[in-house]
Write a structure and sequence with these properties.
The complex is a heterodimer of chains A (112) and B (118). Chain A is an all-beta fold and 112 residues long. Chain A has strands at residues 4-7, 10-14, 19-25, 32-38, 45-51, 56-59, 62-67, 72-77, 86-92, 101-102, 106-111. In chain A, the strands form 2 sheets. In chain A, strands 2, 4, 5, 9, 10 and 11 form a 6-stranded mixed β-sheet that branches. In chain A, strand 6 and strand 7 (62-67) form a beta hairpin. Chain A starts with a strand and ends with a strand. Helix content of chain B is 0%, strand content 49%. Chain B has strands spanning 4-7, 10-13, 19-25, 32-38, 45-51, 57-58, 67-73, 76-81, 90-96, 108-109, 113-117. In chain B, a hairpin with a 2-residue loop joins strand 7 and strand 8 (76-81). The radius of gyration of chain B is 14 Å and the shape is globular. The chains are: A mainly beta (112), B mainly beta (118). The interface between A and B is medium-sized, with 19 and 22 residues.
Chain lengths: 112, 118
């Protein structure tokens, strides 16, 4: 089955700097790659997703890139703010009625 | 947008008792729902896939007789933790896709249930 690896497990950045989180996946059939932000005690919130027919997607300060050949995808957050501090999870699945397989998460701390 | 309602949000029970968690899709039909479990400071791990009108599919290592799943309608799935023990204390989250959804529809999550077994 699918296996998703995520790095780093923790990341501290100064406010205003950029943060990058990277994930790799194992199943070449996967073609849907969402990113979630989770605050303590709450459900994951979808922040951006990308499908295999595109290589990059951007939404304001957040961008995701996908390299299907290498089977890795990355989350980029620019101009970080303290409210970006949370745990971020990448995930992968085959589009359809299949579940998401999550990475282990990255705890992002943005220092003011 | 599509909403998944999960209840209760928190439950404390004594060891040996059973707890039922409900997951409802409020404005869409869900032929399939996924149940995840999240231990503190860990990732979301898929427990089982709940299929409307048929038996659930459990992931390896998840005891189907302990975690009973019922998906009796297109809008309701329940997870019952039977004979709960302290090691079952966790955050349980359900999720669902919209049945007949468009290609770009995301997976919708409930708010989760924090189970504490004393």
């Amino acid at each position: 089955g699918e296996n998703v690896e995520q790095h780093p497990s923790t990341l501290s950045v100064q406010e205003g700097d950029s943060a990058v989180i990277k994930c790799t996946y194992s199943d070449s059939a996967s073609n849907y790659f969402p990113w979630y932000k989770q605050e303590l005690g709450k459900r994951p919130q979808l922040i951006i997703d990308i499908r295999s027919n595109v290589g990059e997607k951007k939404d304001q300060r957040i961008a995701v890139t996908l390299n299907k050949t290498a089977k890795h995808f990355s989350l980029h957050i620019t101009e970080t703010q303290p409210e970006d501090s949370a745990v971020y999870f990448c995930a992968a699945s085959i589009s359809g009625n299949t579940p998401l397989v999550f990475g282990k998460g990255t705890r992002l701390s943005v220092i003011a | 947008g599509a909403v998944v309602s999960q209840h209760p949000s928190r439950v404390i029970c004594k060891s040996g008792t059973s707890v039922k968690i409900e997951c409802r899709s409020l404005d869409f039909q869900a032929t399939t729902m996924f149940w995840y479990r999240q231990f503190p400071k860990q990732s979301l791990m898929l427990m089982a896939t709940s299929n409307e009108g048929s038996k659930a599919t459990y992931e390896q290592g998840v005891e189907k007789d302990k975690f009973l799943i019922n998906h009796a309608s297109l809008t309701l799935s329940t997870l019952t933790v039977t004979s709960a023990h302290p090691e079952d204390s966790s955050f349980y989250i359900c999720s669902a896709y919209e049945a007949g959804r468009s290609y770009n529809s995301p997976l919708h999550f409930g708010n989760g249930t924090r189970l504490t077994v004393t």
